[in-house]
Amino acid sequence: MTTTSRPSYLRVFLTIVRNSLVRDMSFRSNFLIECISSTSWILMNVGFYLLIFKYTNEIGRDTGWQKHQFFVFLATTMFVNSLVQAFFMPNAQEFSELIRTGNLDFALLKPIDTQFLVSLHRIDWSALSNFMVGLLLLAYSLRKLVIAEAIELHWFPFLAYPFYLLCGIFILYSLMISLAATSIWLGRNQSLYNFWFYITNFSRYPMEIYGGPYGTPMRQFFTFIIPVLIVVNVPARLMALPLHFDQPGFWLLPVFAVFATLFSLAASRWVFLKALSSYRSASS
């Protein structure tokens, strides 16, 4: 008797990576135009903030987010957004089409986890151009901060930074796949990109600017209910505004970020499976 071996998810992922790269390189002109367009938009954003810092030394009063600290924050935003847009956004946007055309049936028949397959079946390599711009901006900003003696380079931020970047990516992925899964109930969900835009608008600024009678409830809601504010704030703060062990609540936000990530992944998995249980085949 022969038994069917479980698929190697790493091998499947690497195959998807290779096939996506081959597909993008088959249309090189389009790939280059998308990279240039995306990079131009990012550079315009950097120019916009350079203009702002001509009139102020700090984003928010006494927040510590001065010019180069904020550019570390901006580079972190580029990392998170580019990776989410490269690996997850195109697949989440196509999920409703899989339902409408009946191609979700083929995904269900494959001997691999359906959520894994529909989340990663295509990779947009052009979105990673923003990641490269973010690397240059991060290196430049950290160099300026070290020269100005605003920070000291230690091993902890460099180890914690990529870990919390992944936490932020998983939180945004959880929100995205949960919204995409509602297409099974709604039939067609055209609000995914709008939702993504609105949510990332909140996460692209330091949480310290959300203060006062209106800002404080928003900060609490988007930190503890829909935890998008910790997506960029935690890794950026660890790198640009190094926390000290003698600070009150030093571990509160980083520890909460880990629990928020685990809860988001578990909740999104539940939503996806719940929605999938309601799916009826295109032939039914």
How many runs of DSSP E, i.e. beta strands?
0
Oligomer: single chain
How many structural units, i.e. domains? 1
Shape: globular
Write the H/E string, N to C: HHHHHHHHHHHHH
Helix % is over 70%
pLDDT below 50 for ≥5 consecutive residues: which ranges? none
Task: Please describe the biggest sheet, giving its number of strands, its sense, and whether it closes into a barrel.
Answer: none
User: What is the CA-CA span between the terminal residues?
Assistant: 34 Å
- Report the sheet-strand fraction: under 5%
Computed Rg: 21 Å
Overall pLDDT: 86
Q: What structural class results from the helix and strand content?
A: mainly alpha
User: What is the count of helical runs?
Assistant: 13
Describe the fold and architecture:
- The chain is mostly helical.
- It has one domain (9-277).
- It is 72% helix and 0% strand.
- It is built from 13 helices and no strands.
- It has helices spanning 9-26, 28-52, 67-87, 89-101, 104-109, 114-120, 129-147, 155-181, 183-186, 192-203, 212-225, 229-240, 252-277.
- Helix 3 runs antiparallel to helix 7, helix 4 (89-101) runs parallel beside helix 8 and helix 8 (155-181) runs antiparallel to helix 12.
- The longest helix has 27 residues, at 155-181.
- The radius of gyration is 21 Å and the shape is globular.
- The mean pLDDT is 86.
